[in-house]
Amino acid sequence: LQWLDGAGVPSMLIGGVAASVLGQPRLTQDIDVMAVAPESAWAGLVEAGARHGIAPRITGAVEFAVRSRVLLMRHQASGIDIDVILGSLSFEEAAVGRSQRHALGGLMLRLPRVEDLLVMKAVAGRPKDIQDMEGLLAANPDLDVAFVRRWVREFATAMSMPSLLDELEKVLARTR
Asked: Could you tell me which residue, 104 or 143, shows the higher pLDDT?
């Protein structure tokens, strides 16, 4: 995240890495980052990445990001893919603002609060996200479930996907 910090872009690790640190370890082959930056800064993020050995992994990466809000990058030396999710929703901006620093392997990394990561995992809803939710709930029994329910309900309504909230309730019932 140093390259994003250096570019003055608030960011945090999310995805499998964050779920492994905050919940239960699992294998992941990429790094997912949420960053909050205006579209006008995205080309600058690519330039800043180059100074750290991080390059786009597709031609037209910024144009792809305009369509998808994901900047597809790769750390050249390791070959590790980095997906930079370009947050713009109020929830995403607030989640990055609430992120916390964690020491990991001699590095200081910004990770989301467990509740925020749970909301993101519930919205994504893939089988590995459901598994991550179970691990996060098992490792963090005192988290604010009402906060998670409220935000998942908001997303379920906005996306016309009531199944998001139903799936959250199923996971809560299995893990509580």
From this structure: 143
